[in-house]
Amino acid sequence: MTVEDLLFHSFAVMAVLSALFVVFNRNPVYSALFLALCMSVLGAMFFTLNAYFVAVAQITVYAGAVMVLFVMVVMLFDLKREAEEILKFSPVTLAKVLAAALLCGFLVGTGWLGVTAVKGNLALHLAPSATAADLEKPIDGKIPRMEEKKETSPDEAREPLAKVSGNPDEDLTAAEEARLVENATVPESRVGGGLEEFGSTVTLSRVLFSKFVFAFEAVSALLLVAIVGAVALARSKGGTHHVS
Amino acid sequence: MSPELARVLHVSLNHYLALSAILFSVGVLGVLLRKNAIVILMSIELMLNAVNLDFVAFAKYNSNIDGQAMVFFVMTIAAAEAAVGLAIAVAVFKRFKEVNISYFEKLKG
Question: Nearest CB to B60: which of A1, A146, A222?
């Protein structure tokens, strides 16, 4: 059992427990605090998944901004504890719990079996530089992992590029460069002196501002609409800032 | 530790998918069971987080950064949804002095 496994399992237990506390706590303030804990744990998990910038954004945006919004609203309300039990025994409650359990079973089942079934295809699909020898090799049920990639020296990492351009010293043409950026699987040590490893801010922003630039702009418009909507709700009849 | 157990405990994409499925189901359970509108919004955030975990795990195990870019859009939409949802909850609370979702059906105009 490696450190990674240990980290994953402890984070997983914490995340599931805090998620259960969010749902089954009768005091909404505690629910909000446990949700913040759950989001922080997930942020830590993103960190172990090499998604460094996403991890920081998760902590600041979710555990910071969104949770402050929730806690402020809960405090504004002066909520009483919910009078009735959350899990009172009735056929309806039983049906709801069973439905959620069934959904969980389906999701875990499809996730587990589905990935195992397509693993062979996936492994081939994931390695664009796979040669004929690679294809004939029996798949040992393992997806090519990032760690294996990382261990290659810069020279080895440059090899796929050399295959593409035919000459290792020749600079890439613009089209090839664009294609490689789009795939974002470039041996990044080539540019930026090792700064652009997988999951780094540089790699992520390169994709965000090239391939997803339209979605990025659309999301900014969505945020504007949400702000206008929230202000309109507050100023409407019955809102907090109603002007008569 | 038996080798069988060690093999099962070794983290793979499947583990992340299973964890994300459990978190998503807990969120669904919250939406179904709770009457408090704010806790329902929190459960929705929980479900969105489970999806984010899936995106990031697939991004790592496929060595494709697109999944991480997608997480940003999910986060933005979650923040917008929380802002508007809480504004509605505040409006309902001012009217009925409670945020029970059964009051939502009395809203109009």
Answer: A146
For residue range A199-230, list pLDDT tens digits in order: 788 889 889 999 999 999 999 999 999 999 88
Q: Which of B93, B41, B80 is nearest to A75 (CA)?
A: B93
Chain A touched by B83 (CB under 8 Å): yes
Instruction: Determine whether the interchain pair A77/B63 forms a contact, defined as Cβ–Cβ distance below 8 Å.
Output: no
pTM (2 decimals)? 0.75
Main-chain phi, psi angles of A2, to 5 degrees: -85, 175
| Residue B13 near residue A115 (C-beta atoms within 8 A) | yes
Measured distance CA(A203)–CA(A215) in Å, rounded: 17
CA A216/CA A115 separation, integer angstroms: 30
Contact B18 A203 (CB under 8 A): no
Question: Over 90: is that where the pLDDT of A15 sits?
Answer: yes
Q: Rounded distance, CA B5 to CA A11, Å?
A: 19
**Residue A188 near residue A194, CB atoms below 8 Å:** yes
Residue partners of B4: CB distance under 8 A and separation at least 6: none
Residues of A in Cβ contact (< 8 Å) with B80 = 222-223, 225-226
